[in-house]
Amino acid sequence: MKSSAIFLLKYCRVCKEKNVEKVASFGPTPLANAFLKSSEVDLPECYYPLDLYFCNSCGFLQLGHVVNPSLLFKNYVYASSTSQVFIKHFQDFASKIVGEFSLNKDSLAVDIGSNDGILLKPFKNLGIKILGVDPAEEISKKANREGIPTLIEFFDSKIAKKIKKTYGSADIITATNAFAHIHDLDEIIKGLKILLKDQGVFIIEAPYIIDFLKNKYFDLVYHEHLSYWSVRSLITLFHRFDMKVFDVEKVGVHGGSLRVFVALNSSDYKIKKNVRSFLKQEKLARVDKKETYVIFGSTIQKSKLALIKLLAKIKSKNKIIAGYGAPAKGNTLLNFFGIGNETIDYIVDDSPLKQGLFSPGKKIPIVSPEYVRLHKPDYLFILAWNFADSIIERYGDFRKKGGKFIIPFPTPKIV
Ligand SMILES: [Zn+2]
Fold it and tell me: How far is ligand 1, taken at its centre, from the CA of residue 55, in Å?
């Protein structure tokens, strides 16, 4: 990996052709997870271009600029297990995989980007051998302390060899919401091929481009999120490595994600019929056409105007708005829309790691849920829109006492 902070990609990450073209711009913005300490609030921040590029050769959508992953992931503060929705999701995921692939106490499951062990914990409880790989130092150390063995590394072919030597080959390798963050996919796949058993399965979960387009989820665009996956692009990618996508399903997390099953071409898995129906659906949604993304960019501009109008109306009545949830995507939204402290007084987040910090770019203070109970804002602006239903349910009391929620997307509305 290059040691500079950022570089512009000259070729497509999936097909390697030098035929990429800019189709939309959301920046420059600071890194979406670069939350600031109070001592850093007055210091200048680094802003990086945030532009979507389309490959005219294979139809893949990707960020044009790659920020050095050490800057993005070593100090990652986002702990997955702070969300009950995710905990349940990964418990269900682990049970399903253990059943479907007949895993037992001799099976090894390796998770790339394992975070605090949110997926490995249920695997462990089901009696499977586990290993996590994650470059985020604090979160990985915490996982190790809690009995989730985790290598504090970026996964690559060198680490794959090391794991194989110490732990043996893997039955299952997972990358849930990490695959879209990886620049050097070739290196990852080389590692997979070293580590997987002949009948081993690699399982990816990543946001799905069809949901991204349909629901105008532009705020999934941030510097960590390098790739915007379709089944079509995944097939193109793995084909180069003699691997096949043999099963695909939709899952509900992140407002609509893909779960994709990949194995060696030489393995026994037959390609299921549903793979073809996903491809058909993608053709209909024109995910492989440049115009689709140009239109996408302009519709976001319209949504932005509608939201700003709505917020201006509320602020003209001197109401207090608190942001709810400080995910990376919330920072794309705030920075790209230019919504700052003049509109949102503070942001509430469940993660103690974020409380006491300030949002990157807009420098809005992040507080604990307790703060909302004490200060009773008029509105909660749901930045973590993908949890809107569960947040509204959890804050039933807030609503009973006259509080209202602002859901910014896909169509800005007050509930
Ligand atoms: Zn390409």
Answer: 5
pLDDT in single tens digits along all 415 residues of the chain: 445 889 999 999 999 999 999 999 987 999 888 889 999 999 999 999 999 999 999 999 999 999 988 888 777 766 777 678 889 999 999 999 999 999 999 999 999 999 999 999 999 999 999 999 999 999 999 999 999 999 999 999 999 999 999 999 999 999 998 899 999 999 999 999 999 999 999 999 999 999 999 888 888 898 999 999 999 999 999 999 999 999 999 997 666 799 999 999 999 999 999 999 999 999 999 999 999 999 998 888 888 899 999 999 999 999 999 999 877 778 888 998 899 999 999 999 888 888 999 999 999 999 999 998 899 899 999 997 777 888 898 888 888 889 999 999 878 899 9
Q: Are 366 and 354 in contact (CB under 8 A)?
A: yes
Say how many Å lie between the CA of residue 63 and the centre of ligand 1.
Answer: 12
Q: How far is the CA of 235 from the centre of ligand 1 (A)?
A: 12
Distance 287 CA to ligand 1 centre (A): 13
Question: If you measure from the C-alpha of residue 226 to the centroid of ligand 1, how many angstroms do you get, rounded to a whole number?
Answer: 14
Domain boundaries, the chain: 80-285, 291-414
Q: How far is the CA of 54 from the centre of ligand 1 (A)?
A: 8
Under a CB-based contact definition with an 8 Å cutoff, are residues 364 and 342 in contact? no
CATH code for the domain defined by 291-414: 3.40.50.720
Fold match between domain 80-285 and domain 291-414: yes
Distance 155 CA to ligand 1 centre (A): 23
Give me ligand 1 centre to Cα 6, in Å: 21
Phi, psi (5° rounding) for residue 77? -105, 0
Surrounding ion ligand 1 within 5 Å at CB are 12, 14-15, 55, 57-58, 60
Buried b / exposed e over 275-302, threshold 16 CB at 10 Å, is beebbeebeeeebbeeebbeebeeebee
Helix axes 157-167, 185-195, angle to 10 degrees: 20
Chain Cα centroid distance, residue 77: 14
* Ligand 1: centre distance to CA 236 (Å): 9
Q: Give the residue among 61, 98, 100, 91 at the shortest CA–CA distance from 247.
A: 100
Q: Which overall architecture, per CATH, does domain 80-285 show?
A: 3-Layer(aba) Sandwich (3.40)
